[in-house]
Amino acid sequence: MVAKAPAFDDEIADTLFEMEEAVFVAHNVNFDYSFIKHQLQQSKF
After folding, report:
1. What pTM does this model have?
2. Closest of 4, 27, 6, 25 to residue 15, by C-alpha
3. How many CB atoms lie within 10 A of CB 38?
4. Which pLDDT value is given to residue 45?
5. pLDDT in tens, the chain (45 residues)
6. In 10 A of CB 8, how many CB atoms?
7. Domain boundaries in the chain?
8. Residue 16 · residue 40 · CB < 8 Å
9. How would DSSP label each residue in 1-45?
């Protein structure tokens, strides 16, 4: 299922930075945000 998923640095990080005024909504926000935070720390940005 994730074999064809977009790469974080190539496609997802740009979109996240464009949404700097957006509200992050999640069912289990601490769990979900931990993955996003980790990827942002590892990204080239």
Report:
1. 0.63
2. 6
3. 11
4. 61
5. 789 988 888 788 888 888 888 888 889 999 988 998 898 888 876
6. 18
7. 8-42
8. yes
9. --TTPPPIIIIIHHHHHHTTTPPP--TTHHHHHHHHHHHHHHS--
| CA distances from residue 42 to 2, 12, 16, 38 in whole angstroms, order as listed | 19, 13, 14, 6
Q: What is the structure's pLDDT at 13? A: 85
Place of tokens 């992050």: 24
Residue with tokens 């926000």: 29
**Could you tell me the two tokens for 18?**
């464009």
6 CB contacts (<8 Å, ≥6 apart)?
A: 12
